[in-house]
Amino acid sequence: MLPLPGRSMRFITYTPPPPLGRFVRLLWYYAAPELPDLLERVLPSGAMSLLINLAEDELRWYDGPAEHGAAEHGPAEHVAAEHGAAEDGAAEHVAADGGAPGPRAPARCHRLSGIAVCGAHAEHFAIDAAEQRAIVGAELSPGGAAPFFGPDAAALGGAHVSLDALWGREAALVRERVLEAKTPEERLRALESALASRLVRPRGPLERDPAVDFALGAFVDPSRAWTVADVTGQLGMSSKRFIQSFTERVGLTPKRYCRVQRFQQALSAIERGERVSWAGVAAACGYYDQAHFIHDFRAFAGLTPTEYVTRRRERNHVPLDG
How far apart are CA 216 and CA 218, in angstroms? Predict the structure, then answer.
């Protein structure tokens, strides 16, 4: 997410070293004092994050008819989306690259405390852009949630949860310590310290699951399109056992995770290309054909590739119409 042109913004990232770095991919600080008063659609990345709002003791997210995509829904919703039917019966405009509704403001606001967890998602949702004017976050590595959330990690997939529901009073204390820090770097260090302390007195295993790590590496292997059957064959595990273990650690089923990562590969290809060929992007990202690519893109983004290119503010953020 970026502020409007000409307005100040600071974005600082920090990669923690091991042992914390085996479970946390990135710590980041974002500050933009003046942001437009609008909602932004957040696209699924497959990552789980911990967020701390420094400007107010609340985090908000939004959903509703306009925020429901087709990805991994039940049969009725999937069929409706595949045939271009709006869930709420509203009329849709049709775009030249496959036809999808443009972003619309979602209906429901959900309020969390100022420190919360956003689980790994396979669907888009919306946030209040103006609320993001000062925020610190931690992006967990896929499969890295167990030391911080223990058995609760398995239930966080697709969820937004106030951290006090998981850590009790300690959640508010962590936010207070981060707020007391004077500089962005010190705030990142304060969050790093809080997360590292969970490794000393863990609620879950400190060792990563080697089977899940093997699968995560295989699923992003550019030299081969690994299937779940390929992975279980290499691991000598039953499909049922592997899917359960993967879902508990990552928060998404292997199928959903692979679809989200392929979608993210498409976003990367769009970022790199000055003149985008949708057929070329589809082929480069392993889609069967352009029609399958556009269908999956609509499922995850809620709009067509062309609309995404036109409307995006940043890779995984798209402003919504009011």
Answer: 6
- Write out pLDDT tens, residues 179-235: 999 999 999 999 999 999 999 876 666 789 999 999 999 998 877 778 889 999 999
Phi, psi dihedral angles at 194 (to 5 degrees): -65, -40
SS3 of residue 9 by DSSP: coil
Pair of tokens at residue 312? 């995006």
Q: Which residues of 19-49 are buried (b: 16+ CB within 10 A; e: fewer)?
A: ebebbbbbbbbbbbeebeeebbbbbbbbbbb
| Count of C-beta atoms within a 10 Å radius of residue 287 | 22
Q: What is the largest CA-CA distance in the chain?
A: 56
Say which DSSP state 57 is in: S
Using 50, 70 and 90 to split pLDDT, how confident is the model at 88? very low
Q: In what order do the strands lie in the sheet with 10-14?
A: 10-14, 24-31, 134-140, 49-53, 115-118, 160-162
**AA identity, residue 321:** D
> Is 146:22 a contact under the CB 8 Å cutoff?
no
Cis-peptide, bond into residue 19, ω within 30° of zero: yes
Which stretches of 67-201 are assigned E, i.e. beta strand? 108-112, 115-118, 125-128, 134-140, 160-162
Token readout for 313 is 């503010």
Lookup result for tokens 């993967």: 246
Give the bridge partners for 111, in sequence order.
60
322 vs 316: CA distance, rounded Å = 19
- Report, in this order, helix, strand and coil percent for the chain, each rounded to 5: 45, 15, 40
**CA-wise closest residue to 53 among 172, 226, 152, 189:** 172
